[in-house]
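Pinned message: reference record for NAD(P)/FAD-dependent oxidoreductase
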Amino acid sequence: MEVVTVTRNKDNKDDKNLSNDPNTADRYDVVVVGGGAAGLSAALVLGRSRLRTLVVDAGEPRNAPSDHMQGFLTRDGMAPAEFLALGREEIARYGVELVRDRAVDVAREEDFTVSLAGGRSVRARRLVVTTGLKDELPEVPGVAERFGRDVLHCPFCHGWEVRDERFGVLAASPMSVHQALMVSGWSDDVVLFLHRVAEEELSDEDLRRLAAAGVKVVPGEVAGVRVEEDRLTGVRLADGTVHDRSVVFVAPKAVPQTGLMERLGAELQETPFGAYPVVDATGRTSVPGLWTAGNALGFAEQVIHAASGGYRAASAIVGDLIMSDLDAAIAG
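Predicted structure (tokens):
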């Protein structure tokens, strides 16, 4: 376990709410679980608000396979690893601590107690879970190895970089029709490989839209991708047929990492992309004191959305703690 500890700003009122606690080394105003865009954004706002904050980061960002991220104003094209490194530098300026570890359990009494894989337990008055999700890729040879390079999932993330190339779309369900129609905005040469989806599962409206978009529909199971000189050059069917393609879009199965929130009894809602917590506009869950942001609350949250969500959650927490302390002072 690698622990990064930063000397605190002398102006930081870190001990305002913790001065009577003998275990302040392991007690925080807020613990943020997850050190991606959402978690770091939340931590930045919390640190600037003079709250003692800890970020627990397992170091497994969803966009790690990608060489670049797009659509984030002023950061378009930046490598995800560089983006996170800059974020960690920024939160350090405000006394936020970061620990390289994994949160394995959580409980709540008056405060939250978060247990880490390294054996440490930390307490927090408020908790932000930004653990994101994992992408489960289709079990087709070559797909996982090329993911983030020329096997892609999001045209908004990668469409410009591969515009006008020969696209293939690997169907995971009839919903893959939507993906094929969407990527047709970036190329006039799109083939939808039905893979294990039967032609009968496509509606008449699907077929009409595919035809209007110029998307060719190819039935038959996909056996793998062809790679030559470290570039994807085709899609191979089980019958041996190879279709020349330079890019393949897939729809990974989203697996939300909501285990910690479920342990606390957070209410979840089913969606076509998994079960996610029910939240208000700030990311507040049904559990008092628990917030979430980023892909932990939705499949389609891009980096810019995650950063915004982290900011909203943190600002709500700041107000919540201030009012809670004022109410306690009045009552006392």
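Pinned by admin. Summary line: The two ends are 41 Å apart (CA to CA).
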